[in-house]
Amino acid sequence: MKPSDPRQLAFTVLSQVEEGGFADLSLDAALARCPGMDPRDRGLATELVYGVLRQRGRLDFALARFCSKQLSKVESRVLNLLRLGAYQVLMLDRVPAPAAVHETVELARRLGLERATGFINGILRALIRGEGQIPWPDPAADPLGHLQHGLSLPAWLARDWLRRYGAQEAAALAEAMAGQPPFCLRVNTLKGSRDQYLEMLRAAGHQAEPTVYAPEGVRLTARAAAPLPGDAAGWYQVQDEASMLIAHLLGARPGERILDACSAPGGKTTHIAALAENRAGVVALDLHPQRVRLVEEGARRLGCRGIETRAWDLTRPPAFLEPGSFDRVLVDAPCSGLGVLRRNPEIRWRRGAGDIKRMAALQGSILDNVAALVRPGGVLVYSLCTLTEAESEETLARFLARQPRFAREDLRPLTPPGWAELFDDQGALRSFPHRHGGMDAFYAVRLRRQQGD
Ligand SMILES: C[S@@+](CC[C@H](N)C(=O)[O-])C[C@H]1O[C@@H](n2cnc3c(N)ncnc32)[C@H](O)[C@@H]1O
Questions:
Q1: How far apart are CA 194 and CA 200, in angstroms?
Q2: Ligand 1 touching residue 358 (CB < 6 A)
Q3: Is 126 exposed, middle or buried (0-12, 13-18, 19+ CB in 10 A)?
Q4: Of 262, 363, 367, 386, which is best to mutate to test ligand 1, by the most ligand atoms within 8 angstroms of its C-beta?
Q5: What family is this protein classified in (predicted)?
Q6: pLDDT digit string, tens, across residues 38-88
Q7: H or E, element range at 283
Q8: What ipTM did this prediction achieve?
Protein backbone atom coordinates (compact mmCIF):
# COMPACT_ATOMS: atom_id res chain seq x y z
CA MET A 1 0.00 0.00 0.00
CA LYS A 2 1.15 3.53 -0.63
CA PRO A 3 1.68 4.48 3.03
CA SER A 4 0.26 7.94 2.42
CA ASP A 5 -2.98 6.94 0.70
CA PRO A 6 -5.96 7.49 3.02
CA ARG A 7 -8.46 6.03 0.56
CA GLN A 8 -6.57 2.78 0.22
CA LEU A 9 -6.23 2.56 3.99
CA ALA A 10 -9.99 3.12 4.36
CA PHE A 11 -10.65 0.47 1.71
CA THR A 12 -8.45 -2.05 3.57
CA VAL A 13 -10.27 -1.39 6.84
CA LEU A 14 -13.70 -1.67 5.19
CA SER A 15 -12.65 -5.02 3.69
CA GLN A 16 -11.56 -6.25 7.12
CA VAL A 17 -14.86 -5.14 8.63
CA GLU A 18 -16.64 -7.09 5.87
CA GLU A 19 -14.76 -10.18 7.01
CA GLY A 20 -15.89 -9.71 10.62
CA GLY A 21 -13.33 -7.20 11.96
CA PHE A 22 -14.21 -4.25 14.20
CA ALA A 23 -13.89 -0.83 12.59
CA ASP A 24 -12.17 0.87 15.52
CA LEU A 25 -9.58 -1.88 16.06
CA SER A 26 -8.87 -2.38 12.34
CA LEU A 27 -8.54 1.37 11.79
CA ASP A 28 -6.22 1.85 14.78
CA ALA A 29 -4.03 -1.02 13.58
CA ALA A 30 -3.95 0.30 9.99
CA LEU A 31 -3.05 3.83 11.13
CA ALA A 32 -0.35 2.44 13.42
CA ARG A 33 1.23 0.76 10.37
CA CYS A 34 1.53 4.20 8.71
CA PRO A 35 3.31 6.34 11.31
CA GLY A 36 4.45 8.86 8.69
CA MET A 37 0.97 9.61 7.36
CA ASP A 38 0.01 13.27 7.28
CA PRO A 39 -2.52 14.14 10.06
CA ARG A 40 -5.03 15.46 7.48
CA ASP A 41 -4.83 12.15 5.60
CA ARG A 42 -5.28 10.25 8.86
CA GLY A 43 -8.37 12.37 9.45
CA LEU A 44 -9.67 11.64 5.94
CA ALA A 45 -9.11 7.88 6.31
CA THR A 46 -10.96 7.92 9.65
CA GLU A 47 -13.84 9.95 8.23
CA LEU A 48 -14.13 7.64 5.22
CA VAL A 49 -14.25 4.45 7.32
CA TYR A 50 -16.77 5.75 9.86
CA GLY A 51 -18.73 7.75 7.31
CA VAL A 52 -19.18 4.85 4.88
CA LEU A 53 -20.26 2.49 7.68
CA ARG A 54 -22.62 5.01 9.27
CA GLN A 55 -24.20 6.12 5.97
CA ARG A 56 -24.16 2.84 4.09
CA GLY A 57 -27.95 2.65 3.66
CA ARG A 58 -28.02 6.16 2.20
CA LEU A 59 -25.05 5.56 -0.08
CA ASP A 60 -26.51 2.29 -1.37
CA PHE A 61 -29.86 3.92 -2.06
CA ALA A 62 -28.13 6.61 -4.13
CA LEU A 63 -25.83 4.15 -5.94
CA ALA A 64 -28.71 1.83 -6.80
CA ARG A 65 -30.28 4.61 -8.93
CA PHE A 66 -27.29 4.60 -11.25
CA CYS A 67 -26.23 0.95 -11.25
CA SER A 68 -27.48 -1.33 -14.02
CA LYS A 69 -27.52 -4.40 -11.75
CA GLN A 70 -28.66 -5.00 -8.19
CA LEU A 71 -26.04 -3.86 -5.67
CA SER A 72 -26.23 -7.28 -3.98
CA LYS A 73 -24.82 -8.76 -7.22
CA VAL A 74 -21.83 -6.39 -7.32
CA GLU A 75 -18.55 -7.90 -6.11
CA SER A 76 -17.91 -6.73 -2.55
CA ARG A 77 -14.56 -5.05 -3.29
CA VAL A 78 -16.10 -3.07 -6.14
CA LEU A 79 -19.12 -2.18 -3.99
CA ASN A 80 -16.87 -0.85 -1.24
CA LEU A 81 -15.03 1.29 -3.79
CA LEU A 82 -18.36 2.62 -5.03
CA ARG A 83 -19.41 3.45 -1.47
CA LEU A 84 -16.11 5.21 -0.82
CA GLY A 85 -16.50 7.23 -4.00
CA ALA A 86 -20.18 8.00 -3.32
CA TYR A 87 -19.41 9.13 0.23
CA GLN A 88 -16.90 11.64 -1.08
CA VAL A 89 -19.25 12.85 -3.81
CA LEU A 90 -22.34 13.19 -1.61
CA MET A 91 -21.03 13.97 1.87
CA LEU A 92 -17.58 15.55 1.69
CA ASP A 93 -17.27 19.20 0.76
CA ARG A 94 -13.51 19.19 1.00
CA VAL A 95 -13.05 16.75 -1.92
CA PRO A 96 -14.20 18.06 -5.34
CA ALA A 97 -16.52 15.45 -6.87
CA PRO A 98 -14.46 14.84 -10.08
CA ALA A 99 -11.33 14.33 -7.95
CA ALA A 100 -13.22 11.81 -5.81
CA VAL A 101 -14.14 9.82 -8.93
CA HIS A 102 -10.60 9.98 -10.31
CA GLU A 103 -9.08 8.83 -6.99
CA THR A 104 -11.56 5.94 -6.71
CA VAL A 105 -10.83 4.73 -10.24
CA GLU A 106 -7.07 4.96 -9.66
CA LEU A 107 -7.45 3.02 -6.43
CA ALA A 108 -9.40 0.30 -8.25
CA ARG A 109 -6.51 0.07 -10.73
CA ARG A 110 -3.92 -0.24 -7.95
CA LEU A 111 -6.00 -2.98 -6.32
CA GLY A 112 -5.88 -5.03 -9.55
CA LEU A 113 -9.50 -4.24 -10.46
CA GLU A 114 -8.70 -2.75 -13.89
CA ARG A 115 -11.69 -4.60 -15.40
CA ALA A 116 -14.08 -2.72 -13.04
CA THR A 117 -12.73 0.79 -13.63
CA GLY A 118 -15.18 1.60 -16.46
CA PHE A 119 -18.12 0.38 -14.34
CA ILE A 120 -17.02 2.42 -11.30
CA ASN A 121 -16.27 5.51 -13.37
CA GLY A 122 -19.65 5.33 -15.13
CA ILE A 123 -21.70 5.00 -11.95
CA LEU A 124 -19.88 7.71 -10.00
CA ARG A 125 -20.04 10.18 -12.92
CA ALA A 126 -23.77 9.46 -13.28
CA LEU A 127 -24.11 10.07 -9.54
CA ILE A 128 -22.50 13.50 -9.87
CA ARG A 129 -24.81 14.41 -12.73
CA GLY A 130 -27.95 12.97 -11.14
CA GLU A 131 -27.41 13.79 -7.48
CA GLY A 132 -30.23 16.34 -7.45
CA GLN A 133 -32.76 13.85 -8.88
CA ILE A 134 -32.32 11.05 -6.32
CA PRO A 135 -35.85 10.25 -5.08
CA TRP A 136 -35.11 10.33 -1.34
CA PRO A 137 -38.13 9.03 0.59
CA ASP A 138 -40.21 11.86 2.00
CA PRO A 139 -40.07 11.77 5.85
CA ALA A 140 -43.80 12.54 6.20
CA ALA A 141 -45.17 10.28 3.43
CA ASP A 142 -42.75 7.38 3.90
CA PRO A 143 -41.17 7.51 7.38
CA LEU A 144 -39.93 3.90 7.19
CA GLY A 145 -38.22 4.53 3.85
CA HIS A 146 -36.72 7.73 5.23
CA LEU A 147 -35.25 5.88 8.24
CA GLN A 148 -33.88 3.11 6.04
CA HIS A 149 -32.65 4.93 2.96
CA GLY A 150 -32.22 8.51 4.14
CA LEU A 151 -30.85 7.77 7.61
CA SER A 152 -29.23 4.36 7.01
CA LEU A 153 -31.02 2.17 9.53
CA PRO A 154 -31.35 -1.52 8.67
CA ALA A 155 -35.01 -2.44 8.01
CA TRP A 156 -35.60 -4.35 11.28
CA LEU A 157 -34.25 -1.48 13.39
CA ALA A 158 -36.14 1.15 11.39
CA ARG A 159 -39.41 -0.75 11.98
CA ASP A 160 -38.66 -1.15 15.70
CA TRP A 161 -37.78 2.51 16.29
CA LEU A 162 -40.75 3.73 14.26
CA ARG A 163 -43.12 1.59 16.35
CA ARG A 164 -41.57 2.64 19.66
CA TYR A 165 -40.74 6.29 19.20
CA GLY A 166 -42.93 7.53 16.32
CA ALA A 167 -41.72 9.04 13.05
CA GLN A 168 -40.21 12.32 14.27
CA GLU A 169 -38.44 11.01 17.32
CA ALA A 170 -37.13 7.94 15.48
CA ALA A 171 -35.74 10.19 12.72
CA ALA A 172 -34.06 12.51 15.24
CA LEU A 173 -32.50 9.51 17.00
CA ALA A 174 -31.38 7.92 13.71
CA GLU A 175 -29.87 11.21 12.57
CA ALA A 176 -27.94 11.55 15.82
CA MET A 177 -26.75 7.94 15.54
CA ALA A 178 -25.42 8.58 12.03
CA GLY A 179 -23.28 11.47 13.24
CA GLN A 180 -20.04 11.82 15.19
CA PRO A 181 -20.17 11.38 18.96
CA PRO A 182 -18.68 14.12 21.15
CA PHE A 183 -15.26 13.44 22.63
CA CYS A 184 -15.60 13.33 26.41
CA LEU A 185 -13.21 12.71 29.27
CA ARG A 186 -13.86 11.86 32.88
CA VAL A 187 -11.55 13.82 35.11
CA ASN A 188 -9.95 11.52 37.67
CA THR A 189 -10.99 13.20 40.90
CA LEU A 190 -8.31 11.21 42.74
CA LYS A 191 -5.85 13.64 41.05
CA GLY A 192 -7.73 16.93 41.22
CA SER A 193 -10.90 18.80 40.26
CA ARG A 194 -12.63 19.25 36.93
CA ASP A 195 -11.89 22.99 37.05
CA GLN A 196 -8.19 22.31 37.49
CA TYR A 197 -8.18 19.94 34.53
CA LEU A 198 -10.16 22.37 32.36
CA GLU A 199 -7.46 24.93 33.10
CA MET A 200 -4.75 22.40 32.13
CA LEU A 201 -6.57 21.73 28.85
CA ARG A 202 -6.87 25.44 28.06
CA ALA A 203 -3.21 26.02 28.86
CA ALA A 204 -2.33 23.26 26.35
CA GLY A 205 -4.43 25.03 23.67
CA HIS A 206 -7.51 22.76 23.72
CA GLN A 207 -11.05 24.05 23.92
CA ALA A 208 -13.28 22.22 26.35
CA GLU A 209 -16.39 22.67 28.46
CA PRO A 210 -17.90 20.91 31.45
CA THR A 211 -20.44 18.18 30.64
CA VAL A 212 -24.04 19.06 31.53
CA TYR A 213 -24.93 16.16 33.83
CA ALA A 214 -21.80 14.26 34.91
CA PRO A 215 -20.03 16.37 37.55
CA GLU A 216 -16.53 15.22 36.55
CA GLY A 217 -17.01 15.17 32.77
CA VAL A 218 -15.31 17.36 30.19
CA ARG A 219 -16.27 17.69 26.55
CA LEU A 220 -13.56 18.65 24.08
CA THR A 221 -14.95 21.09 21.55
CA ALA A 222 -11.72 21.80 19.63
CA ARG A 223 -8.54 19.78 20.00
CA ALA A 224 -5.15 21.33 19.44
CA ALA A 225 -2.23 19.38 17.96
CA ALA A 226 -0.68 19.08 21.44
CA PRO A 227 -1.37 15.86 23.35
CA LEU A 228 -3.92 15.94 26.15
CA PRO A 229 -2.25 17.00 29.38
CA GLY A 230 -1.91 14.64 32.33
CA ASP A 231 -2.12 11.38 30.38
CA ALA A 232 0.79 9.55 32.02
CA ALA A 233 -0.15 11.01 35.41
CA GLY A 234 -3.66 9.54 35.12
CA TRP A 235 -5.64 12.77 35.16
CA TYR A 236 -8.39 11.51 32.87
CA GLN A 237 -10.22 8.58 31.38
CA VAL A 238 -11.79 8.78 27.93
CA GLN A 239 -15.44 7.99 28.58
CA ASP A 240 -18.82 9.06 27.25
CA GLU A 241 -20.95 11.19 29.56
CA ALA A 242 -23.75 8.58 29.70
CA SER A 243 -21.26 5.98 30.88
CA MET A 244 -20.10 8.39 33.61
CA LEU A 245 -23.59 8.46 35.10
CA ILE A 246 -23.63 4.77 35.94
CA ALA A 247 -21.18 4.79 38.86
CA HIS A 248 -23.21 7.66 40.35
CA LEU A 249 -26.35 5.53 40.16
CA LEU A 250 -24.54 2.73 41.98
CA GLY A 251 -23.61 5.22 44.73
CA ALA A 252 -20.58 3.44 46.24
CA ARG A 253 -19.28 4.88 49.54
CA PRO A 254 -15.92 4.58 51.32
CA GLY A 255 -15.64 1.37 53.31
CA GLU A 256 -18.10 -0.60 51.17
CA ARG A 257 -17.53 -3.83 49.27
CA ILE A 258 -18.48 -3.54 45.61
CA LEU A 259 -18.70 -6.06 42.77
CA ASP A 260 -18.25 -4.83 39.20
CA ALA A 261 -19.43 -7.98 37.44
CA CYS A 262 -18.67 -7.16 33.77
CA SER A 263 -15.90 -4.68 34.29
CA ALA A 264 -13.56 -4.55 31.30
CA PRO A 265 -12.03 -2.31 30.09
CA GLY A 266 -12.64 -0.73 33.49
CA GLY A 267 -14.08 2.74 32.83
CA LYS A 268 -16.71 2.26 35.50
CA THR A 269 -14.52 0.23 37.90
CA THR A 270 -12.04 3.07 38.18
CA HIS A 271 -14.86 5.60 38.47
CA ILE A 272 -16.39 3.61 41.34
CA ALA A 273 -13.00 3.52 43.09
CA ALA A 274 -12.62 7.30 42.64
CA LEU A 275 -16.13 8.08 43.93
CA ALA A 276 -15.41 5.96 47.01
CA GLU A 277 -12.18 7.97 47.46
CA ASN A 278 -10.08 4.82 46.96
CA ARG A 279 -11.48 3.42 50.19
CA ALA A 280 -13.86 0.75 48.85
CA GLY A 281 -13.00 -2.89 48.20
CA VAL A 282 -13.85 -3.48 44.54
CA VAL A 283 -13.93 -6.92 42.93
CA ALA A 284 -13.79 -6.58 39.14
CA LEU A 285 -14.67 -9.60 37.00
CA ASP A 286 -14.81 -10.11 33.25
CA LEU A 287 -15.01 -13.06 30.91
CA HIS A 288 -11.79 -12.42 29.01
CA PRO A 289 -8.40 -12.55 30.79
CA GLN A 290 -6.86 -10.13 28.28
CA ARG A 291 -9.67 -7.66 28.97
CA VAL A 292 -9.20 -8.08 32.73
CA ARG A 293 -5.63 -6.90 32.16
CA LEU A 294 -7.04 -3.66 30.70
CA VAL A 295 -8.87 -3.05 33.99
CA GLU A 296 -5.60 -3.60 35.88
CA GLU A 297 -3.66 -1.26 33.57
CA GLY A 298 -6.35 1.43 33.87
CA ALA A 299 -6.40 1.16 37.66
CA ARG A 300 -2.61 1.52 37.76
CA ARG A 301 -2.60 4.52 35.42
CA LEU A 302 -5.36 6.30 37.34
CA GLY A 303 -3.92 5.47 40.78
CA CYS A 304 -6.97 3.48 41.91
CA ARG A 305 -6.49 1.25 44.93
CA GLY A 306 -8.49 -1.58 46.43
CA ILE A 307 -9.40 -3.25 43.11
CA GLU A 308 -9.10 -7.04 42.91
CA THR A 309 -9.55 -8.56 39.44
CA ARG A 310 -10.35 -12.02 38.16
CA ALA A 311 -11.39 -13.56 34.84
CA TRP A 312 -14.69 -15.38 35.24
CA ASP A 313 -17.54 -16.49 33.06
CA LEU A 314 -20.64 -15.30 34.87
CA THR A 315 -22.88 -17.77 33.11
CA ARG A 316 -21.52 -19.91 35.97
CA PRO A 317 -21.98 -18.95 39.63
CA PRO A 318 -18.79 -17.36 41.06
CA ALA A 319 -18.44 -19.87 43.90
CA PHE A 320 -15.27 -18.14 45.13
CA LEU A 321 -17.32 -15.12 46.29
CA GLU A 322 -19.28 -15.31 49.50
CA PRO A 323 -23.06 -14.98 49.15
CA GLY A 324 -24.48 -11.77 50.59
CA SER A 325 -21.03 -10.19 50.91
CA PHE A 326 -21.40 -7.15 48.64
CA ASP A 327 -23.02 -3.82 49.52
CA ARG A 328 -23.39 -2.96 45.85
CA VAL A 329 -23.16 -4.89 42.61
CA LEU A 330 -22.94 -3.41 39.13
CA VAL A 331 -23.89 -5.53 36.11
CA ASP A 332 -22.85 -3.41 33.12
CA ALA A 333 -23.86 -6.24 30.88
CA PRO A 334 -22.71 -7.36 27.44
CA CYS A 335 -25.46 -6.19 25.08
CA SER A 336 -26.35 -5.49 21.46
CA GLY A 337 -24.57 -2.11 21.70
CA LEU A 338 -27.20 -0.24 19.68
CA GLY A 339 -26.77 2.78 21.96
CA VAL A 340 -23.21 3.24 20.75
CA LEU A 341 -23.86 2.84 17.02
CA ARG A 342 -21.85 5.98 16.34
CA ARG A 343 -18.73 4.45 17.85
CA ASN A 344 -19.19 0.96 16.40
CA PRO A 345 -21.00 1.70 13.14
CA GLU A 346 -20.50 -1.80 11.74
CA ILE A 347 -22.89 -3.11 14.41
CA ARG A 348 -25.93 -1.78 12.61
CA TRP A 349 -25.19 -4.01 9.60
CA ARG A 350 -24.37 -7.04 11.70
CA ARG A 351 -26.98 -7.33 14.40
CA GLY A 352 -30.38 -8.86 13.89
CA ALA A 353 -33.39 -9.70 16.03
CA GLY A 354 -31.81 -13.12 16.84
CA ASP A 355 -28.79 -11.45 18.49
CA ILE A 356 -31.05 -9.43 20.75
CA LYS A 357 -32.72 -12.61 22.04
CA ARG A 358 -29.34 -14.25 22.61
CA MET A 359 -28.05 -11.21 24.52
CA ALA A 360 -31.17 -11.05 26.66
CA ALA A 361 -30.68 -14.69 27.69
CA LEU A 362 -27.01 -14.02 28.55
CA GLN A 363 -27.95 -10.95 30.60
CA GLY A 364 -30.56 -12.95 32.54
CA SER A 365 -28.02 -15.64 33.33
CA ILE A 366 -25.41 -13.10 34.54
CA LEU A 367 -27.99 -11.34 36.73
CA ASP A 368 -29.05 -14.65 38.27
CA ASN A 369 -25.48 -15.57 39.07
CA VAL A 370 -24.70 -12.35 40.90
CA ALA A 371 -28.04 -11.88 42.68
CA ALA A 372 -27.08 -14.02 45.69
CA LEU A 373 -23.92 -11.96 46.23
CA VAL A 374 -25.85 -8.79 47.12
CA ARG A 375 -26.29 -8.45 50.88
CA PRO A 376 -29.81 -8.02 52.28
CA GLY A 377 -30.57 -4.30 51.92
CA GLY A 378 -27.85 -3.99 49.26
CA VAL A 379 -28.07 -2.47 45.78
CA LEU A 380 -27.90 -4.02 42.31
CA VAL A 381 -27.53 -1.74 39.26
CA TYR A 382 -28.17 -3.22 35.82
CA SER A 383 -26.92 -1.09 32.94
CA LEU A 384 -26.66 -1.42 29.16
CA CYS A 385 -25.39 0.64 26.24
CA THR A 386 -28.41 -0.25 24.17
CA LEU A 387 -32.07 0.65 23.91
CA THR A 388 -33.98 -2.52 23.04
CA GLU A 389 -36.94 -3.49 25.23
CA ALA A 390 -35.94 -7.15 25.15
CA GLU A 391 -32.59 -6.45 26.83
CA SER A 392 -33.83 -3.77 29.22
CA GLU A 393 -37.35 -3.99 30.64
CA GLU A 394 -38.07 -7.56 29.49
CA THR A 395 -34.83 -9.02 30.90
CA LEU A 396 -35.50 -7.08 34.09
CA ALA A 397 -39.12 -8.23 34.40
CA ARG A 398 -38.07 -11.89 34.02
CA PHE A 399 -35.30 -11.42 36.58
CA LEU A 400 -37.69 -9.84 39.10
CA ALA A 401 -40.16 -12.70 38.57
CA ARG A 402 -37.41 -15.22 39.38
CA GLN A 403 -35.92 -13.14 42.22
CA PRO A 404 -38.81 -11.68 44.20
CA ARG A 405 -36.54 -10.48 47.00
CA PHE A 406 -35.36 -7.65 44.71
CA ALA A 407 -37.45 -4.55 44.03
CA ARG A 408 -36.73 -1.68 41.64
CA GLU A 409 -35.94 1.76 43.00
CA ASP A 410 -36.98 5.00 41.35
CA LEU A 411 -33.71 6.77 40.52
CA ARG A 412 -35.26 10.24 40.35
CA PRO A 413 -35.33 11.04 44.08
CA LEU A 414 -31.78 9.64 44.40
CA THR A 415 -30.19 11.90 41.79
CA PRO A 416 -29.75 15.67 41.25
CA PRO A 417 -32.94 17.51 40.12
CA GLY A 418 -31.19 18.52 36.89
CA TRP A 419 -31.06 14.87 35.87
CA ALA A 420 -34.87 14.43 35.89
CA GLU A 421 -35.13 14.45 32.07
CA LEU A 422 -32.77 11.46 31.88
CA PHE A 423 -35.27 9.06 33.47
CA ASP A 424 -38.40 7.33 32.20
CA ASP A 425 -41.65 7.28 34.14
CA GLN A 426 -40.53 4.20 36.10
CA GLY A 427 -37.38 5.96 37.26
CA ALA A 428 -34.96 4.06 35.00
CA LEU A 429 -32.19 5.94 33.16
CA ARG A 430 -32.72 6.25 29.43
CA SER A 431 -30.27 8.60 27.80
CA PHE A 432 -30.50 9.51 24.13
CA PRO A 433 -28.04 11.42 21.94
CA HIS A 434 -30.70 13.61 20.31
CA ARG A 435 -32.27 14.61 23.62
CA HIS A 436 -29.39 14.80 26.05
CA GLY A 437 -26.58 16.82 24.54
CA GLY A 438 -25.16 14.08 22.33
CA MET A 439 -24.77 11.40 25.01
CA ASP A 440 -24.71 7.72 24.06
CA ALA A 441 -27.98 5.82 24.56
CA PHE A 442 -27.80 3.98 27.87
CA TYR A 443 -30.29 2.17 30.05
CA ALA A 444 -29.87 1.64 33.79
CA VAL A 445 -32.10 0.48 36.57
CA ARG A 446 -31.41 0.21 40.27
CA LEU A 447 -32.74 -2.64 42.42
CA ARG A 448 -32.57 -3.21 46.14
CA ARG A 449 -32.52 -6.54 47.90
CA GLN A 450 -35.03 -6.62 50.75
CA GLN A 451 -33.68 -6.25 54.27
CA GLY A 452 -33.53 -9.37 56.38
CA ASP A 453 -34.20 -12.07 53.78
C1 LIG B 1 -20.44 -3.31 28.34
S2 LIG B 1 -18.97 -4.15 28.56
C3 LIG B 1 -18.43 -3.58 30.13
C4 LIG B 1 -17.83 -2.21 30.10
C5 LIG B 1 -17.22 -1.84 31.43
N6 LIG B 1 -18.15 -1.95 32.52
C7 LIG B 1 -16.65 -0.43 31.42
O8 LIG B 1 -17.32 0.50 31.85
O9 LIG B 1 -15.51 -0.26 30.98
C10 LIG B 1 -19.48 -5.77 28.93
C11 LIG B 1 -18.38 -6.70 29.36
O12 LIG B 1 -18.97 -7.96 29.68
C13 LIG B 1 -18.01 -8.95 29.43
N14 LIG B 1 -18.69 -10.26 29.37
C15 LIG B 1 -19.30 -10.82 28.31
N16 LIG B 1 -19.78 -12.04 28.63
C17 LIG B 1 -19.47 -12.23 29.93
C18 LIG B 1 -19.67 -13.31 30.84
N19 LIG B 1 -20.30 -14.43 30.44
N20 LIG B 1 -19.17 -13.20 32.09
C21 LIG B 1 -18.51 -12.08 32.48
N22 LIG B 1 -18.30 -11.02 31.67
C23 LIG B 1 -18.77 -11.10 30.41
C24 LIG B 1 -17.35 -8.50 28.14
O25 LIG B 1 -16.07 -9.07 28.01
C26 LIG B 1 -17.32 -6.98 28.30
O27 LIG B 1 -16.06 -6.56 28.76
A1: 10
A2: no
A3: middle
A4: 262
A5: Belongs to the class I-like SAM-binding methyltransferase superfamily. RsmB/NOP family.
A6: 999 999 999 999 999 999 999 999 999 999 999 999 999 999 999 999 999
A7: strand 281-286
A8: 0.99
